[in-house]
Amino acid sequence: MRILVVEDDVNLNRQLADTLKEAGYVVDQAFDGEEGHFLGDTEPYDAIILDIGLPEMDGVTVLEKWRGAGRGVPVLILTARDRWSDKVAGIDAGADDYVTKPFHVEEVLARIRALIRRAAGHSSSEIICGPVRLDTKSSKATVNGTTLKLTSHEYRLLAYLMHHMGEVVSRTELVEHMYDQDFDRDSNTIEVFVGRLRKKMGVDLIETVRGLGYRIQAPKHAN
Question: Which domains are present in the chain?
Answer without folding.
Answer: 2-119 (3.40.50.2300), 126-216 (1.10.10.10)
